[in-house]
Write a structure and sequence with these properties.
- There is one protein chain.
- This protein is of the alpha+beta class and 202 residues long.
- Helices cover 34% and strands 24% of the residues.
- A five-stranded mixed β-sheet has the order 1-5-4-3-2.
- It is globular.
């Protein structure tokens, strides 16, 4: 009787060990997340602070989907997204900025991410210093001094942009806060974010 009781658990162990090689990949390394897939780091944009945090995270993670979600989409926003480039960048990329929509915003960022993938451990981050805030009804206007660092593989173009950005934010039809208007200003001798958008627009 005792030998039969011992055989049961032993038999189970043998079966379990036999199944391990054909397991379901529990112990295999995860595939890296695609930059065109949404990430759990994107939290509901219930206010301007959450929206700006999502923008910074999308840049740090090079996540195109989450980046695009920060802007007013024509399908569920009262007004379309508008970008006003710095005057210095407009002088160089006038044709590019003649018709800039959220589609161009996504395409530029997607191109920039693609140009960073050939560079090992490429750094991407957005540092912001809050300057002013104006609240009017259900919208808010925030101004930030920014430093955008994005390492890429083009040796002819800088990897850092510095300037001031003014963003008009408000809730869309789904009650998620998005950027409706973005105005870029040149404040130093460095290129601005607008230069990055113009350079990597195609």
């Amino acid at each position: 009787m005792k030998s039969r009781l011992r055989a049961g658990p032993l038999r189970l162990c043998v079966v379990f060990l036999a199944l391990l090689p054909a397991g379901c990949g529990l112990f295999e390394p995860r595939q890296p997340e695609s930059p065109t897939a949404p990430s759990d780091s994107f939290r509901p944009s219930t206010d301007p602070d959450a929206l700006i945090e999502n923008l910074q995270n999308a840049i740090a993670q090079k996540n195109v989907v989450n980046y695009e979600r920060c802007f007013a989409e024509p399908s569920h926003a009262a007004e379309p997204f508008v970008f006003a480039p710095s005057s210095a960048a407009l002088a160089v990329y006038a044709a590019v900025f003649a018709h800039w929509t959220v589609d161009e915003e996504r395409q530029y960022f997607q191109n920039l991410v693609a140009r960073s993938q050939g560079k090992s451990n490429a750094v991407s981050n957005l540092t912001l210093t809050h300057k002013t805030i104006i609240v009017s009804g259900d919208s808010a206007v925030h101004s930030y001094d920014y430093t955008l660092t994005f390492e890429h593989t083009d040796p002819t173009f800088p990897q850092t942009a510095i300037g001031t950005m003014q963003v008009v934010m408000g809730p869309d039809n789904n009650n998620a806060w998005v950027i409706y208007r973005w105005t870029d200003y040149k404040t130093t001798g460095d290129v601005t974010w607008s230069h990055f958008k113009g350079k990597f627009s195609n």
